Amino acid sequence: MPNDADQVKFLYTILKQCDQKCVDWDDVAEKVEMTNAHAAQMRYYRFKKAMEGNAPTAQTPKAATSQKRKQGSGEGAKTSKKQKGGVSDSEQRQP
User: Fold this and answer.
1) C-alpha of 42 from chain center
2) What is the pTM of this model?
């Protein structure tokens, strides 16, 4: 008896032969107790991408990105600021 992964692959291989226009997404949503046809269709497209190895990658949360910026702005990370002429503060002070 094939395992679940084999069954999924088998069924997906059959589904790839079908025309997506023939799928009644409202019926699919109703049968699997989803909110609407669009939700069922999007679930299928995510499943399709995962099966084809094109699963979307998770984006870095904004909170983690802003924390990295805060870490680099401490006292040890001082850099000279350039003024309008492209000259830094320390270069301008030199005689």
Assistant:
1) 14
2) 0.49
